[in-house]
Amino acid sequence: LAIGKKVDKDKWARYLADYLNLMGREGLDIAYLDLMNEDQSMWGGDIENVLYVIDRIPALLDRSVTMPKIVFPSTWSPGDGLKKFLNVPSVAARRGKVLKRIGVVATHNTPDADRNKFDEAGLVAFADAVRAVDPDKELWNTEMHGWVGTRSPSDDILNSIILWRHLAAGFSGIDTWLFFGPWKGAAHPMVYSNRGHGPEVTAKYEIFKSVVNDTCGGRYVASTSSDKRIVPAVLMKERRMLVSVLNTGDGEIAVRVRLPEGMHVSGGMERRLWEASKGDISPRISHLECGVQDWTSIVPARSLVHFALTVEKSAPASSLTTATFSPSVFE
Q1: Which pLDDT tens digit goes with each residue over 245-260?
Q2: Are strands 180-181 and 191-192 parallel, antiparallel or unpaired?
Q3: Can you give the pTM of this predicted structure?
Q4: Which residue of 177, 209, 243, 260 lies most exposed, with the fewest beta carbons within 10 A?
């Protein structure tokens, strides 16, 4: 498709259209199409090459095939998203017009394999730059690193901090790498395929399922914690709320969760616990009966808790505050 910096735009468009047509003939409708993977040299720094391909594809599609939303640029890192996309001269002068032509702005976080060295500032900088141009633009990580399905539930639990940081930065879509694969392959899949007794899920799968099944299509609600060991995340869809509390510390912490004024729990709630020391893949579930505005729960060391609940509210919620207390208060 490209030799050096010379791009064969027509071959590029034809290649993608052929794929969409093939999927259509097989009965598969493609909703999103990623134009490339990481290597930005393909479009030679001239955004007109990309816009040409986007415009050319529809004319090459079979009548029964619908043009999908375009995902771009899926850079190697958020830093590359700035350096090799948003700040490229052909884009920088007209970011607004370019983003209107793209359905989803995407990046990878390839350098962030270690949760303790995660570049949160770089992630936020890229997200803020996109949202400064278009506050409603969908922002995805199309190849998440660092939080991957592993043979170690402990790693899956603690590495989930990378997911919570993405949500806090404003990312609305996460593509795991990979979803399904063999034990002897890359240590990434959510579901492993070649165990003697059939497919086997990871703790990452169960954590992601907990988020998606309760609040997919909802919104992220701002939250704070008074203890740096606690990483909170709150998602809400209509009256359904998921409160996630990750304890990164080496000791248990009594966490008090307080809802905004005018909001309270309707009925009971489900508490889902993944504890690193116990190697939990599936959560241990308990039920709490309450109709209150706040509650306190002991969160074990190096563990993740999801509170799934329904709320009643008399006014819209703009934030949720998570306050924490040291274990000594409850000794």
Answers
A1: 999 999 999 999 988 8
A2: parallel
A3: 0.89
A4: 209
